[in-house]
Write a structure and sequence with these properties.
Length: 408
């Protein structure tokens, strides 16, 4: 990216904003598309069919590309393994975003991301290299979460849930907003417009990231002309980065933009500290009086087990799952290596194994609140989350109760 030249949009027949940026011997045609627009999809097809380009880059990561190419990819995954790896929350977040996308498709008659699908299909048809340049959606969500002060995270999460589960009709104004960005940007648009902490990881970082990916995948001499299909909201930022000084180490910048802060040792030690304090409380109770000791143990099991069971009950778990959660939660809370949610989800999967129909209807079912409980896949996620939250609440409440009994 040492030599740059900018040309204005050329043909009047194109509806989307378009800029050609020359970087060395390669011309990058940045096409700003509307993610909810049949016109944008048609324009992408026409440009690729024109034969002008020898490569196509699109605003997708591997995960989103896989979801686009294989909408039923979740059916091929081991749900139990998802829970074991601690990815249940991320899967739920992706389903929620997919629900927002599906709702727009049903109300507008246009599938969001149609232009990306058009680029995928047309590049395959013409046997052109397809370059995936966007950052993984999971990393972006983590960096958004970490960039927001802890006291604002509840508002952010509730706003996200409200926007994706709302049954209100999508207004013309909201559709217009979608024409300037993607589902992520539209979901967080209310917050991002007023918050630099959201704008940075959601938009400006991705502008830089996608340019670095272009530099990485398009070394000098590899391609002469590359069509870059991006949301219109990224065009200005990416053009500025392409016109700027070339990066001496794009791989290093990519690694920095993909990094997330590891949990501090303090947070990792808290579960073990709680376990030690609770067990110490039991020991002190028995040393004072056997009856007091059994009273503390009983309070721990009842409070922790009941609240975890209530969490499973709210998720409409199988009766066996609820009972198993009640008995497991007090024990798992004393063992930080396994959680009550993991046990609850495992039992629920054993009692109500998702069927092929559940996977095929998943994208549609999660567009409604009732659908999350009706579908066995999404309901298992809710069981995991409900039992986890219930057990966590029970741990703190029971722990404070024990402390009060010993100090009072």
């Amino acid at each position: 990216m040492t030599e740059t030249a900018l040309t204005e949009p050329s043909a009047q027949t194109h509806t989307g904003p378009r800029r050609d940026v020359s970087v060395g011997d390669t011309v990058f045609t940045l096409l700003g598309t509307a993610h909810v627009s049949a016109e944008s999809a048609n324009e992408v097809r026409e440009l690729i069919d024109s034969g002008e380009f020898d490569a196509v880059a699109i605003e997708l990561c591997d995960a989103r590309h896989n979801n686009l190419a294989n909408p039923d990819a979740l059916a091929d995954q081991d749900l139990f393994e998802i829970f074991r790896q601690g990815k249940a929350g991320m899967v739920a977040a992706n389903l929620a975003l997919g629900a927002f996308q599906q709702r727009i498709a049903e109300q507008s008659g246009i599938e969001p991301g149609a232009e990306m699908r058009a680029a995928l299909e047309a590049s395959q048809r013409h046997e052109l290299p397809l370059l995936l340049i966007d950052r993984d959606v999971g990393i972006t969500l983590k960096r958004i979460y970490q960039n927001v002060p802890w006291w604002q995270r509840t508002t952010l999460i509730s706003g996200l849930l409200g926007s994706v589960l709302s049954r209100q009709e999508v207004s013309a104004e909201e559709v217009e907003k979608l024409k300037q960005g993607d589902v992520l940007e539209s979901t967080f648009s209310e917050f991002a417009a007023e918050s630099e902490t959201l704008f940075t990881p959601l938009i400006s970082e991705r502008d830089r990231y996608m340019v670095m990916r272009l530099a990485q995948q398009c070394p000098p001499g590899k391609f002469k002309r590359v069509l870059v299909v991006i949301g219109a909201g990224h065009l200005k930022g990416m053009a500025e980065h392409l016109e700027g000084p070339a990066s001496a180490a794009p791989e290093k910048e990519i690694a920095e933009l993909e990094s997330t802060r590891p949990r501090s040792r303090i947070w990792k030690m808290i579960p073990w500290l709680i376990t030690a304090l609770v067990l110490t409380g039991f020991a002190i109770g028995f040393s004072r009086n056997t009856g007091l000791g059994w009273q503390l143990v009983g309070e721990w099991f009842v409070i922790n087990g009941v609240l975890a069971g209530v969490g499973s009950l709210i998720a409409l778990a199988h009766p066996v799952t609820i009972i198993a959660t009640i008995f497991a939660a007090p024990l798992t809370s004393l063992n930080p290596t396994i959680g009550a949610g993991f046990v609850a989800a495992g039992v629920e999967l054993a009692m109500r194994k998702p069927k092929v129909r559940d996977f095929s209807l998943l994208r549609h079912d999660v567009t409604t609140v009732k659908g999350w409980w009706r579908n066995r896949v999404s309901r298992t996620l809710l069981v995991f989350i409900g039992a986890t939250i219930g057990s966590a609440a029970g741990t703190w409440i029971a722990g404070l109760k024990i402390a009060g009994s010993l100090l009072g």
